[in-house]
Amino acid sequence: MKMHHLFSPEGEAALAALLQQRPLLAFDFDGTLTPIVARPGDARLAPGVSARLAALAALLPVAIVSGRSVEDVRGRLGFVPQFIVGNHGAEEAGPPAAATGHAGALSPLRARLIEARSALAAAGVTVEDKGHSVALHYRLSRHRELAQRVIGEVLAGLDETLRVFGGKLVVNVVARLAPDKADAVRALVQRCGAQAALFVGDDVNDEPVFASAPPHWLTVRVGRDDPRSKARWFLDSQREVALLLERLLTLLASP
Fold first, then answer.
1. 37-58 residues labelled b (16+ CB within 10 A) or e (exposed)
2. What kind and span of H or E run contains 151?
3. Sheet of 133-137: strands edge to edge?
4. Is 164 in the same domain as 191?
5. Same domain, yes or no, for 107 and 133?
6. Among residues 175, 207, 241, which one ends one of the domains?
7. What local confidence, expressed as pLDDT, does residue 96 receive?
8. How many angstroms separate the CA atoms of 72 and 103, rounded?
9. pLDDT digits (tens, 9 = 90+) for 192-234
């Protein structure tokens, strides 16, 4: 299925039709609401983006669905959305007992990472344990091919209870049975009583939402660099997300 630019006559019509259904507005964080930065701790929402999201949250339910932990992303927003889901859908998308079990499934991996920490550090790989998922970043590595090879060796033969997926210069590991972003967004739509959803994302972990979204949802990928993406619409860059937020506010203010 070919993606189409959202800022087109067809895209404008799709946005207007979606808003008639009082949808959930759900957004990824890194690479979507804010640019991807070399050091994840430096990421913050621009004041204009934060202000637009706050205005939207006063009109419709707004969710941030991130690969970060809930606590991490909460302090970077500058506004309070109705929902925050972290760890690629695994955190606060299901019963607390189940979430604890999913986090515990990572214990064998943690032991393996301790044994391999010298090799990982030498290859420029940074390990981020987010409780419900583990991320191995190699954005700052001077030898990215080496970093990928070392990560592959460390993760080789992992238990089948774990799931590994890539991203933009990162490799993620979660419990195989943990909810993903698609599970999380569907649960939030039901929870808030919305009739549909807008979901905007930019990476591999957003594809489950794109692939499983019902036809009356509106899915948007930031960037057209992946022709295999299942999103129905695209924006050319992260900078266009602020324009989308402004357009949503304009349409909601129209009679």
1. eeebeebebeeebbebbebbbe
2. helix 144-155
3. 126-129, 133-137, 170-175, 162-166
4. no
5. yes
6. 175
7. 56
8. 17
9. 999 999 999 999 999 999 999 999 999 999 998 888 999 999 9
